[in-house]
Write a structure and sequence with these properties.
With about 150 residues, the chain is an alpha+beta fold. It is built from 4 helices and 8 strands, in the order ααββββββββαα. The strands form 2 sheets. A 4-stranded antiparallel beta sheet has the order 1-8-3-6. It has a 4-stranded antiparallel beta sheet with strand order 2-7-4-5, with no helix packed on it.
């Protein structure tokens, strides 16, 4: 059953760009899309804060968000790390790791955001062993690459 609020034709090309999902086939992408929900965030809304538990992947259907590093010392200003626009994504590593969020994300304008919750993603992997194996291989590869780059 497909979620009627989720635009498959928009999400398929975006999922293919997300390193975690890049090597999956179209049916596997569609299986993931079935677990995605659409949320609305008004301008200036904080979607999550640095240090929060990572519990979802976010894909911008429309809108814009800023990724902000919180100041380390009193008197310092927040640092704008990135601006993500329609079609962009953030938070994907939260699906496969228990590391807290390393930045704050705020909607800069009214935004519609597709969300894949970690719990839904975990259930999907439990039901689909081939998908779980492919995701696991991608995660191991990315972690190895990250370790080499440090």
């Amino acid at each position: 059953m497909t979620n009627p609020n989720v635009d498959v034709s928009m999400l398929l090309p975006i999922l293919k760009k997300i390193p975690l999902f890049a090597d999956l086939n179209e049916q596997q992408h569609k299986d993931i899309i079935q677990h995605i929900v659409l949320m609305y965030y008004p301008a200036n809304y904080t979607i999550f804060k640095e240090g929060d538990a990572g519990d979802a992947l976010y894909i911008l259907k429309t809108g814009q968000v800023n990724v902000i590093k919180e100041p380390k010392e009193a008197g310092d200003l927040p640092q704008n790390i990135a601006e993500i626009n329609t079609g962009g994504f953030f938070g994907e590593m939260a699906l496969v790791s228990d590391v807290p969020r390393n930045a704050t994300v705020k909607a800069t304008i009214d935004s519609e955001v597709f969300i894949l919750n970690k719990d839904d993603f975990s259930k999907l992997l439990a039901e689909n062993t081939v998908l779980a194996q492919q995701i696991s291989a991608t995660v191991v590869s990315r972690l190895n690459q990250n370790n080499k780059n440090q």
